[in-house]
Every structure is written in structure tokens, then in C-alpha cells.
Specification:
150 residues; alpha+beta
Length: 150
């Protein structure tokens, strides 16, 4: 009988620990999602294979999809500008090597109106989770236009 009581106590304790772990995991997941949604600019976290771990709605709005890594999507938007491709590929290589970085990237304007738009692209490797990279994209077109005028 004592063994049954002991097994029952362990089962009850294990169930309680599982419930607490589940509660805290869900609370932290909700916090991560809220942090990603807090910015109106595209944000994405990918693993070493390029699989999307987290993405915000601004990312989906900007790119029209969420399944591919930001650098891949940007490379598809660059067109024939070899200089921009080289700059972006350099940032990607540094990020994969564990180095944070940022670049200013010129892309053809959306909507087929001609002209260009400028974006600040940032990459932050997550040191506690090797292979995971946090990507961000911010529109800096207005700032660049003011700089050109000045």
C-alpha cells in the first residue's frame, strides 16, 4: 500500500509540475509574440536552416509571405544590382558567423512606379541559441531623400 501511495504522490507531483511548466511556456510564448508585434516594421527569427521561428504581421504585409528567410526574399527583390546583392550576402555571411550587423539597402520601389526605396537591414545572431538569427527591416527612404537634398 505504501508503494501505491508513493507512486500516486509522484504522479500528482509530476502532473502539477507539468501544468506549471505548460503555464509558464505559454505565458513566455505570448510575450515573445507580443514583442514581435510591438514594432510596425518587418521582423523575423530564423534557425540555421532558414526555417521561420517567429514573424510579425508587418513582415507578412511587406513580403506577402512568411515561410522564407528575409535575406532570401530581399535578394529576390533587388533585381540586377550586384552591389546590393554583395552587401546583403556579406551581412548574411557575418550573421551566420555569429556577428551582428546592419546595412542600408536600396531596392526598386514597390508598385512598379520606378525609383528606389532605402531600407536599414539588421541581423542579430542569438548568442544563447547558436544558428538563430533575428532579422529586422526599417524603411529609411525619407531620411535618405532628405540627406540627398541637404
Amino acid at each position: 500500500m505504501n508503494w501505491l501511495a508513493l507512486v500516486g504522490a509522484f504522479a500528482l507531483g509530476g502532473g502539477l509540475i507539468f501544468a506549471l511548466c505548460t503555464y509558464f511556456y505559454r505565458r513566455n510564448s505570448a510575450l515573445r509574440a507580443s514583442v514581435f508585434e510591438a514594432t510596425p516594421s518587418p521582423r523575423q527569427a530564423v534557425d540555421a536552416s532558414g526555417r521561420t521561428l517567429y514573424v510579425n504581421s508587418a513582415f507578412a504585409d511587406f513580403f506577402g509571405e512568411t515561410g522564407r528567410p528575409m535575406p532570401e526574399l530581399l535578394l529576390g527583390s533587388i533585381g540586377n544590382c550586384e552591389e546590393s546583392k554583395g552587401i546583403l550576402e556579406g551581412l548574411l555571411a557575418r550573421a551566420r558567423d555569429g556577428q551582428s550587423g546592419q546595412i542600408e539597402l536600396r531596392l526598386p520601389a514597390k508598385g512598379g512606379l520606378g525609383g528606389f526605396e532605402w531600407y536599414n537591414v539588421v541581423a542579430f545572431p542569438v548568442r544563447e541559441r547558436p544558428g538563430i538569427i533575428y532579422w529586422g527591416l526599417d524603411d529609411i527612404t525619407a531620411r535618405r531623400q532628405v540627406e540627398e537634398v541637404v
